[in-house]
Amino acid sequence: MKLITVEEHYDTDENIKQFKQYSKVKNNNPYQDKLKPNLVDFSNKVAYMDEHGIDFQVVSDAGNSAQVLPDQYAVPGAHAQNETLAEKISQYPDRFAGLATLPANVPDKAAEELEYAVTKLGLKGGIISGSINGQFLDDPKFEAIFAAADKLGTTLYLHPGVISNDQKAMLYDSKSYSKMAANMMAGAMWGWHMEAGIQVMRIITAGLLEKYPNVKLATGHWGEFIPMFMERIDGFSPIVTDLPHKFSDYYKRQVYLSPSGMFTAPQMQMVLTQMGADHIMWSEDFPYVQSGDTVRKFLEQADITDEQREAIAHGTAEKLFKL
Fold first, then answer.
1. Domains of the chain by start residue, with CATH
2. Cβ distance 214 to 246 under 8 Å?
3. pLDDT band, residue 35 (cuts 50/70/90)
4. How far apart are CA 317 and CA 55, in angstroms?
5. Which 3 state secondary structure label does DSSP give 283?
6. Which of 157, 14, 156 is nearest to 85 (CA)?
7. Is the pLDDT of residue 74 over 80?
């Protein structure tokens, strides 16, 4: 079984330096420095892939990317990240493809960078991590990014990002448990994923997928809560929107999902029922998640048909990213 994983991450020494120096968004991963060799050194990635039966990765810079730098650093920083990623991929063309870092806080430049990265560097789409300075992508100021993606017929991977301090304070801080507990709840335990699901819900409700039918969205963590609420959202959609189709019609047409290392059978079966294998891909979230042999074994042993297994393992990703 050929295995492609699609939410795998890299970084560069220069971006790490700029992030620490200029970003107002704190890195709340205490293991970031320990992870650096597996983020920066692609030979480390290949060794891990070889050891655990992973044939190919779609790699991106997420969370601590140039996206969250001040504007004067975000645009050149994203461009530098994409140039470096393309150069690294050229060293291992049979093992990696990439998604472009987009300086989404400068939407016109983000649209230009997406077109450059796809048409000149051969990258397979773009990635945006979380809200942008507390703003969601349904704001009309970001429409240039969707217009560019639609023109290219390419994919925007909507990755979680660190939520705003105000959002964290209101939803997760408490006098009844520790600051560390609040940080975890606001982050990888819950908050990142809830916000990422809200991002997708707002994009569809705002009519962006109706207006831009050639845009594809990809999300991890089994759809960031949305598949569980699909029918519930559909029930309210006629009240909140006058779009010609149901929320689920757009979602099932233009959104693609992966587990991001959440190798859990109940979620897999639910998402498979909602979406079908032709909208599901595989992912580990390396190096933030390192599940080793489980990455492959879970899918090999899953209670699904061989046809579904092949689609999830590689077929869907090959079609979506034109691999």
1. 4-321 (3.20.20.140)
2. no
3. confident
4. 13
5. coil
6. 14
7. yes
